[in-house]
Design goal:
It contains five helices and eight strands; from the N terminus they run βαβββαββββααα. The chain is 35% helix and 19% strand. The protein has one domain: Collagenase (Catalytic Domain). The strands form two sheets. Strands 2-1-5-8-7 form a five-stranded mixed sheet. It is an alpha/beta fold. Helix 1 crosses helix 3.
Length: 187
């Protein structure tokens, strides 16, 4: 099972859209995806950088990994409104650690409103699905893909996220299946 948690409160439609898509996709590998509830943002306050007004993404992953263990899940994905960054980068849409089997996605910069545009909940869900699929791909050992339509293509900007599709290209999907077999998740 892949556990999905919201870090802070998120719209139910966003969570349901992401979990529904992830479950439909991963069920072909015998992996269910379940929403495991909301966790508070307070434990992550140590990740806050007041000079940047952002949270250091890597700080989220060990806590999420511990939650994965408690839930006896294969992997865990946290989704948050908090604005994330990594050293050397202005921001990140998400981050994953294959050894911890944990990932986090921020919807902060996936929202049209961040760019002064009208809200679009459907587009936000589509973008969040792509970033969730991308980070879970990393969790299961995939690297960035040169194919700009593959969900594993690196998103340097929102444009990159909008251009790519929500699925893995045939090359990445083959690698994913092989990696899931090695993990004993997929027969």
């Amino acid at each position: 099972m892949i556990a999905v948690v919201s870090i802070g409160t998120l719209k139910r439609s966003l969570i349901e859209g992401v979990v529904g898509f992830l479950n439909d996709y991963h069920s072909r590998f015998g992996i269910s995806v379940e929403f495991s509830g909301e966790i508070p943002t307070e434990p992550f306050s140590v990740a806050f950088n007041p000079l940047r007004g952002q949270y250091l993404g890597r700080v989220f992953l060990p806590t999420l990994s511990a939650l994965k263990e408690r839930l006896n899940a294969t992997a865990v994905l946290g989704i948050t409104e908090l604005d994330l960054y990594e050293e050397g980068l202005n921001f990140i849409f998400g981050l994953a650690n294959p050894s911890l089997k944990s990932a986090v996605v921020s919807v902060h910069r996936l929202r049209n409103e961040f760019y002064g545009l009208e809200p679009d909940d459907e587009l936000l869900i589509e973008r969040a699905i792509k970033e969730a699929m991308h980070e879970l791909g990393h969790v299961f050992g995939l690297r960035h893909c040169p194919n700009p339509r593959c969900v594993m293509h690196f998103s340097n900007s929102l444009y990159d996220t909008d251009v790519k599709g929500p699925l893995y290209c045939p090359v990445c999907e083959e690698k994913l299946e092989a990696n899931l077999r090695k993990l004993g998740v997929f027969p």
